[in-house]
Specification:
Layout (H helix, E strand, L loop, with lengths): L4 E6 L9 E7 L2 E7 L17 H5 L9 E3 L8 E3 L2 H19 L4 E5 L6 H14 L3 E3 L8 H6 L15 E5 L3 H4 L1 H14 L2 E5 L5 H5 L2 E3 L6 H14 L5 H7 L3 H9 L3 H8 L3 H13 L3 E5 L9 H14 L9 E3 L23 E3 L3 H6 L9 E5 L3 H4 L3 H8 L5 E6 L11 E4 L8 E3 L6 E5 L12 H11 L11 H6 L8 H7 L1 E3 L30 E4 L15 H7 L3 E4 L1 H7 L6 E5 L4 E8 L7 E3 L35 E6 L2
Parallel strand pairs: 6-14, 7-13, 8-9, 8-11, 9-10, 11-12, 14-15, 15-16, 20-24, 21-23
Antiparallel strand pairs: 1-2, 2-3, 4-5, 4-16, 17-18, 18-19, 20-25, 21-24, 22-23, 22-25
Helix pairs in contact: 2-17, 3-17, 8-10, 8-11, 8-12, 8-13, 11-12
This protein binds ligand MGD (2 copies), iron/sulfur cluster and molybdenum atom.
Molybdenum atom binds next to loops.
Length: about 650
């Protein structure tokens, strides 16, 4: 028996906390992962999803060998092949596609399954060098990009929240989705008596831990923000000096909110007028206050209007003058993630396709050239994209050659022609930034790759070599690839020793007279048709999107796909707690279990978690019901979903 060793690493998942962890290795096997005690943000804990990450690595269901399809697409029948056969097969097919259709007929498709610079970006070097189609857009918080583009700051160092005196969690379920952030909010409560207010159609774990919960009707947040601005202006509680200084259209904005009295807001948002009045006054008086908003309220056709309205409100309150005040959606360290993809390898200007229209791109018969070769990694589009049946229709195309890099044979991998086994975070070297704080994190491999799993850097090098591509960037080691994302003043050796470094960007500044605050206020969302309920599909506590939905412990904790419904809606339909129900609309239908609960407002139902199609007992892919609709900036409008619910036969 050898003594245990401790290896510094970090959680690679798409979460705002980017925790630093310590993996304990004994006799060549990882026996635990624990949150780093020294890391100021992680503070010794991981989360309920990840605190046994080694179980994922050692799972009996792990993909550990390359596979080739041996049945119809989607069925999940595969046969084992060697790496030589796999690389050869991909290179041959990609070359043939380039020959016949040109390189733009190849499409890479990936997201944040791993946030590591190597796992996420290395393969892009290959596609850049080949001249493949590019992709843009995001399935997550695309709407808030408009703030960035126009110069509205959308975040600051979240550790500053300890100075806040009022924290509005506006559609943000931090205790489930980024619980390390909540620590700083509780600290603010302890230090300054800060009040925490949750605005959420559901009384979540987070809402229960707040001082007040406002169960707003989903999609009407812009109206509430207008009402709050209205009251602040009427009461002389707006910081007009600050707002005029930084904005270009204050008068228009004042005009726009003038008609939104608390009474009118109340009828649209489904909350009491005095709640609007009181919250607005508190927001005007308490300095600093912060609006902390999550991703879900952006997931509507009015996503951009929403983020502009909360930014305008934070500006009107003058909260940006103080540390811990303003708007918080996202925060990043200085880190040059995209550099790791080496866009300079591109010659010419290949077309770029929107990643959230994957179904459309794969099925569009007029697309010239059509997509004939697809490589997918770090995302599960057959589950997470809007109107997922269209994506599946595309993936079923017989003449489409699909390669999927995965840990598990999930819904997407089942449509692949070739599946390649990726290493997990315990088996590879990587470096990553963050989207919820200011730390850069490094991950040392704790163990060697299991069986035949390979890092994405290694897979990129094998393909480049087999395709005869000579650019040196295509033959760099994983460590070189990772290091290429670092800012020049971060020393790799220091980072290797410490595991992380805080690298804050300069504090957001404001140019004079620049920001647009007004944008018209939509008369709230499309009203649901008679008998219809609005369906929300938020994050579950134990899954990370569709990741972990196959892991026994996390599945057991989530029990089964469950639709939350208010008792009044259940009574109207003669439905009772615990029964199976059919959730349906013009696009599809799902069978799930019903939970009748006061924790959701009337008129709204919620199906948390991205369940897979397999096993059939828990088959419930919520995106079978979500429409092909997007905000103007391309954010899938997952919340624009209206359903009927009836008892299952
Ligand atoms: N446990 C867990 N953690 C995760 C994830 C996960 O899947 N599971 N996913 C990660 C990812 S990718 C992301 S983007 C983040 C997202 O983190 P969050 O944005 O916190 O997650 P959501 O659950 O999508 O939405 C937050 C809350 O918004 C509410 N909401 C929905 N629509 C509206 C609306 O119109 N108005 C208002 N005011 N509220 C609304 C929902 O009821 C929900 O409780 O979480 C990350 N962390
Ligand atoms: N209806 C509805 N749809 C949604 C959302 C919603 O709230 N409602 N949320 C949206 C949001 S905010 C997001 S961010 C997306 C998330 O969508 P995705 O980014 O697709 O997230 P996951 O479903 O977790 O899929 C990530 C995949 O990456 C794999 N993976 C993890 N690590 C690695 C690695 O190192 N290598 C490889 N090759 N694979 C790895 C995992 O096994 C998993 O299958 O979903 C969106 N879709
Ligand atoms: S998912 Fe988030 S909270 Fe959980 S360990 Fe990873 S970074 Fe930390
Ligand atoms: Mo996300």
């Amino acid at each position: 028996m050898s003594p245990a060793t401790q290896i510094k690493g970090c959680c690679p998942l798409d979460c705002q906390d980017t925790c630093a962890w310590v993996a304990t290795v004994k006799d060549g096997r990882v026996i635990s992962v624990q949150g780093s005690r020294e890391h100021p943000f992680t503070r010794g804990t991981l989360c309920a999803k990840v605190n046994d990450y080694q179980e994922r690595t050692y799972s009996a269901d792990r993909l550990l060998h390359p596979l080739r399809r041996a049945g119809p697409k989607g069925e999940g029948k595969f046969e084992r092949i060697t790496w030589d056969e796999a690389i050869d097969g991909i290179a041959t097919r990609f070359s043939a596609i380039i020959e016949e259709y040109g390189p733009e007929a190849l499409l890479p498709h990936n997201y944040l399954g791993s946030m590591g610079a190597v796992q996420r970006r290395a393969l892009m070097r290959l596609f850049h060098a080949l001249g493949a189609s590019q992709f843009h857009g995001s399935i997550c918080g695309a709407a808030s990009n408009i703030l960035d583009a126009e110069g509205h700051p959308r975040g600051f160092d979240p550790e500053e929240m300890v100075h806040s005196r009022l924290i509005i969690l506006w559609g943000s379920n931090d205790l489930s989705t980024c619980h390390h952030h909540f620590h700083f909010m509780k600290e603010a409560r302890r230090l300054n008596g800060a009040r925490l207010v949750s605005i959420d159609p559901r009384r979540t774990r987070t809402a229960r831990a707040c001082d007040e919960h406002i169960p707003i009707r989903p999609g009407t947040d812009t109206v509430l923000a207008a009402g709050m601005a209205h009251v602040m202006l009427r009461e002389g509680l707006a910081d007009l000096e600050f707002a005029r200084e930084v904005s270009s259209d204050l008068d228009e904005f004042v005009q726009q909110v003038s008609e939104w009295t608390p009474e009118r807001v109340s009828t649209v948002c489904g909350i009491d007028a005095d709640v609007v009045e009181r919250l607005a006054k508190e927001f005007g008086v308490k300095k600093p206050a912060v609006i902390r908003t999550g991703i879900a309220p952006q997931q509507s056709v009015n996503g951009e209007v929403f983020v502009r309205s909360v930014s305008a409100l934070a500006i009107l309150g003058g909260h940006w003058r103080f540390s811990g005040g303003g708007l918080f959606i996202e925060a990043y360290p200085v880190f040059y993630d995209l550099q790791a993809a080496r866009p300079d390898l591109m010659t010419g200007q290949p077309r770029s396709l929107d990643m959230v229209r994957l179904g459309q791109s794969l099925t569009d018969r007029s697309l010239e050239p059509p997509i004939m070769g697809l490589m997918i990694w770090g995302t599960n589009p057959a589950v997470v994209q809007p109107n997922v049946e269209l994506v599946r229709e595309g993936l079923r195309r017989e003449n489409l050659f699909t390669v999927v890099l995965e840990h598990f044979l999930n819904d997407t991998a089942r449509y692949a022609d070739i599946v390649l086994p990726s290493t997990t975070q315990l088996e590879h070297f990587d470096i990553q930034g963050a989207w919820g704080h200011h730390y850069i994190s490094l991950n040392h491999p704790a163990i060697a790759p299991i069986e035949q799993a390979k890092s994405h850097g290694e897979i990129m090098r094998l393909l480049a070599k087999r395709m005869g591509l000579g650019a040196p960037a295509l033959h760099e080691s994983d460590e070189q690839i990772a290091a290429s994302a670092l800012p020049p003043d971060v020393d790799l050796e220091v980072l290797k020793a410490n595991g992380w470094v805080k690298k804050s960007p300069v504090r957001p500044g404001f140019e004079k007279g620049k920001l647009r605050l007004s944008e018209g206020i939509p008369e709230a969302v499309k009203p649901p048709g008679a008998g219809h309920l609005q369906l929300l599909t938020p994050k579950s506590h134990y899954f990370l999107n569709s990741s972990f939905a196959n892991m026994p412990r996390q599945r057991k904790a989530e029990r089964q796909p469950t639709l939350d419904m208010n008792p009044s809606d259940a009574a109207d339909r003669g439905l009772s707690d615990g029964q199976q129900v059919l959730v349906k609309n013009e696009q599809g239908a799902l069978t799930v279990w019903l939970r009748v609960t006061e924790t959701i407002r009337p008129g709204v139902v919620s199906l948390p978690g991205k369940w897979w199609s397999v096993p059939v007992e828990t088959e419930a892919v919520a995106n079978m019901l979500t429409p092909s609709s997007w905000s103007p900036g391309g954010q899938p409008a997952y919340n624009e979903t209206f359903v009927e619910v009836v008892g299952a036969a």
